Amino acid sequence: MARVINDECIMCGACASACPESAISEGDGKYVVDASACIDCGICEGECPMGAISEA
């Protein structure tokens, strides 16, 4: 199951640079996870300083 990024995202980019599958990209006001590319490794969740990433 892919991770999701909520509205607490401050668009710092830490999650995107940490993602081994490049499944995270800039969206409209927050980063978004491409569910088809996400392997649910959880690395992004640990990198987010805002705690804005969780399991879907």
TrEMBL record:
Gene3D superfamilies noted in UniProt: 3.30.70.20
Cofactor(s), names only, from the UniProt record: [4Fe-4S] cluster
Pfam family of the protein (one): Fer4_9
Keywords: 4Fe-4S, Iron, Iron-sulfur, Metal-binding
GO molecular function: 4 iron, 4 sulfur cluster binding; metal ion binding
Keyword Metal-binding: yes
Transmembrane segments: none
Record flagged with keyword ATP-binding: no
4Fe-4S ferredoxin-type domain boundaries: 1-28, 29-56
Task performed by this protein: Ferredoxins are iron-sulfur proteins that transfer electrons in a wide variety of metabolic reactions.
Name of the protein in question: Ferredoxin
